[in-house]
């Protein structure tokens, strides 16, 4: 099965279904745009390029994307973004948030069925898993990126970076290289430049094995979700005595489910507070990430952490 057939088999680039392709100008996004044009049809595809103006090559990247889109007959939207001085978080996180937010707005204009396609590959998946495993404990770190999450799809998750380069060469499609991708200034660059080659030296199939492990764990996570739902029996609370009687791994998952349902987002630290919850008695305990545990009458529930009172001046 060739690359086009493998990507078509994912069902993430359907003929005629609107899709906004995130186009940086690098090999992976160039490959994705070409495949999307082939599979969905040029009329269904729009490309989005975000020019952050952070690199001397930024305008050249934009010009390259414009020329590519003209060649493929695809509409191109360019969004220019300058980082505010008071923007929270690191530079890469800010850039990612800007990119996805703008893509979501463009897709919303294209209709409820429109998707946003990102060019993450199996190589990116392996790097992501290794980075998360080093930076945060827990099984969730090993699950990697999802192929589909809401509007967002990643049709190339089963394709390596070498394969996207091979596709572009075979199709005569040039791409731009971003030196920051291999710079050791950022953690992701250190994973890519140091850790991944070291793992390849241990075993040539190291990346593939990491990705396959994530696929297996994601399948197993679906089973664990059912077990957690059974333990909670459809409730948003649980008796502390029942929680204590559960296997510890399941009890931690129950705490995480309750915390994340309350906070409306990920609560990576909540499972680690299991022993504190069991020893709490009646009272409240901060779980981090905007959630807190509340025990009353022997029953645990979680709620959002209330905001701090305004400081008096």
Describe this structure in words.
With 313 residues, the chain is of the alpha/beta class. It folds into 2 domains: 3-208, HUPs (Rossmann fold), CATH 3.40.50; 235-313, Chorismate Mutase Domain, subunit A. 48% of the residues lie in helices and 14% in strands. The protein is built from 11 helices and 10 strands. It has helices at residues 3-9, 27-40, 58-72, 91-110, 122-135, 161-171, 187-202, 206-232, 240-245, 248-263, 274-278; strands spanning 19-22, 45-51, 75-80, 115-117, 148-149, 152-153, 237-239, 283-288, 291-296, 299-304. Strands 3-2-1-4-6-5 form a 6-stranded mixed beta sheet, with helices on both faces. It has a 4-stranded antiparallel beta sheet with strand order 7-10-9-8. Helix 2 links the parallel strand 1 and strand 2. The protein is globular and about 70 Å long. The termini are far apart. The relative contact order is 0.10.
Which structural traits does this protein have?
14% strand, 313 residues, Chorismate Mutase Domain, subunit A, six-stranded mixed beta sheet, single chain, four-stranded antiparallel beta sheet, 2 domains
In short:
It is built from 11 helices and 10 strands.
Q: On the 0-100 scale, what is the average pLDDT?
A: 90
Output the structural class. Answer: alpha/beta
In CATH, what is the class of the largest domain?
Alpha Beta
Q: What's the end-to-end separation, in Å? A: 69 Å
Name of the CATH superfamily of the largest domain = HUPs
Provide the domain count.
2
